[in-house]
Amino acid sequence: MRRREFLATVPVLATALKTIPAASAAPASPDLKVWNRQPAARWADAMPLGNGRLGAMVTGGAERERIYLNEDTLWSGFPTERDTPPEPGALAEVRRLMLQQKDYVAGDEAAKKLQGPFTESYQPLGELGIEFDGHAGAEDYRLELDLDSAVCRTTYRVGPDSFTREAFISAPDQVLVFRIESSAAGGLNCTLRFQSPMPFHAAADGALLRLTTKAPAHAEPSYRNVPNPLRYDDAEGKGMRAEVLLLAIADGGSVTAAGNALGVEHANSVTLLLAAATGFRGFDKLPDLGADEVHARCLRTIEAARKKSYAALREAHVAEHRSLFRRVAVDLPATEASALPTAERLARNKEQADPSLAALYYQFGRYLLIASSRRGSQPANLQGIWNESQMAPWSSNYTTNINVQMNYWPAEVSNLADCHEPLFDFIEDLSHTGAHIARVAYGLDGWVTHHNSDVWRLSNAVGMKTGDPRWANWPMAAPWLCEHLWEHYRFTGDREFLARRAWPVMKSAAQFLLGWLVDDGHGGLTTCPSISPENGFYEPGTDKVATVDAGCTMDRALIRELFGNSIEATRVLDRDRDFAAQLEAALKRLAPFRKGSQGQLLEWSEEFREPEPGHRHMSHLYTLYPSPLFTWTRTPEWMEAARRSLDLRLASGGGHTGWSAAWIVCFRARLRDGVQAGEAVARLLTQSTNINLLDMYAGGQLFQIDGNFGATAGIAEMLLQSHDGEVSLLPALPPAWSAGSYRGLRARGGLTVGVEWKQGRAVSARLDAGPSGEFILRPPAGQAIRELRQGERAIAFEKLNEGRARVKVAAGSSTVVGFA
After folding, report:
1. What domains, with CATH codes, occur in the chain?
2. Which of 223, 567, 654, 672 could cross-link with 649 by S-S, CB 3.0 to 4.6 Å?
3. Mean pLDDT, residues 538-567 taken together
4. DSSP H helical segments within 77-233, as ranges?
5. Residue 562: HSE in the Cβ half-sphere, 13 Å Cα cutoff
6. How far lies 790's CA from each of 261, 504, 787, in Å?
């Protein structure tokens, strides 16, 4: 349908909308609402909405509403041969300096010769501003985000008249829907305009408002002080085109176009439908869709959505969202503070624990994952899907030395495996670009990727031969990313996924590592260069700080994990047995983990002095979480060494950033320390959580979403664990969470688990089996499994020590667990 024909249908649609009842409030459930009594004072305080692809931050201003927009494929740059080949002999030089001369500082300088270009940057799409006539002096104001419906609602009163706004971003219909209502007939008057930080053109035509723009051909990272950090190119494909198209449909009154704005006059209500599209065609293709095709995509989306009433759009959106969100429920004790606005609850929580706030925070993390990562979308980046700056902190990119992985820690256990899919797509893409880098940079088979990536799937070591190797050179992201593929298999038992998607990528990553390992000079195998992400040490005998080592603990952990998982995969799939034999032989030569003088797990190959003993990264403790390498059942002595390392790091001031504090929750949960896990959650809420529950970095100045996701995973880990060959119920329950329940959490092997507890003791549990399987159930400390029932029938089980039980369950069965 052409635009002229489309606009001719708008009056008919407006007439039909007159019969729509006023927007109803989402189900009353205060513990599933994030709300405050004032509009967002800054972008970071706004309420986030998203459908995986399209994102918005709603500020809720009474006189001026500002809705900040993002589209997940809108990045600077375009696919190019961005890898800069390393200087000839650079890798050999690094290894000579490290392994033969132990000249660590010189090794750092040599490692820079392996570096290539930086990533591109995730870009903000623009801003919809709505200016309201006569809305000064608003009273009874409330801005809320209902997690259960994924609807943002703003209500207030001006004199005798009340105003209600509802906003959501629909996954079924791929539009942002924004409805504004006035209690007074004809009482709504406002003006709508688009803005963008990029060069843009805005124009109104009838009831349509259109913004067109083009992203930079290149954006430098914000920490690079260089001339012209944003570079534009008019050539097709050199920078990505983008468009936002808005349709305003008034009930009563009129909508008129005036230059670059739409005016709404004397309406009872207005419904806004907003679509967005970019010229993105894939990570390996130029973003050269022309402006006409980008516009046509937006127009088709609007055309389809406007055929539905507001009520129908809302109903479809809420139903689809709840199909994901309502898979899990968590109920923790409420307090008097539970009914307060979120900002006030956070302030009160500093003085008195508010367990239901932790439950809300957990569900907010699940909400954010649903909103920022859907099948077919890009994976969640450093800011999920929400970004206001063209030069965002760390380019709002994919930081693969923990951050993008942390984003997906809660996916499987929190029953959102669907939202894990974009990361799997990302990993597959990286295996292609990373195979090229493996050949060009290192002359090896398989695939490699380093510390940073972007929408174009950059895989090289960044830094442009000037970057600090502690963050630029880390070449171990591939095995960590592969762990997500294996975990999905462990949770689901999906052999087809393992055979078709996971194993080819895992095998290729393992092939690279077989070539990457070098003789340590003592008959063993090690990695070199090796970096413990972003940390450093004093070169022995000097006060010079170095970062490059050989055989850091994290390297050895990742290799042991990937090789071990790969060997198991060959057994499950009954293939590649010769390759598995190569991995087994390499594992036998890999250096073991080591303890230091204080009984701690060492981070590097030796016990170096540390310039930052309280460093935010705790990469050697990957062995504790997310990895299952260390467990109380199999390796209790290494669990104690990990605990000692954690205590030393925290005693020196560690865990001071949001994502780092979230990691501590996960560590304490794996250590089965409910007291300290609860304290870690409280610290995170006190020190790193904004008034809208978003995770904040650098003293509350920068939004970074990984802390939200990491803490969500940690809270789940406090309630359920399944990494150690058994299903552990309430393994790290804090004293303040003395009563409660959950349902819908997932355990490896395909179990869906629910537990109810009172006075710190489990009362009952329910296990819903996916595939058939045998499980060992571990009760909470001090309890025992008393009985298992399916309906009225008691189920036989084998009693084990520590009150545990071994039981076989049939596919699709439901088993109720009783405790003593």
Report:
1. 3-77+122-221+231-324 (2.70.98.50), 90-119+350-720 (1.50.10.10), 740-819 (2.60.40.1180)
2. 654
3. 97
4. 90-95, 104-111
5. 28
6. 64, 40, 10
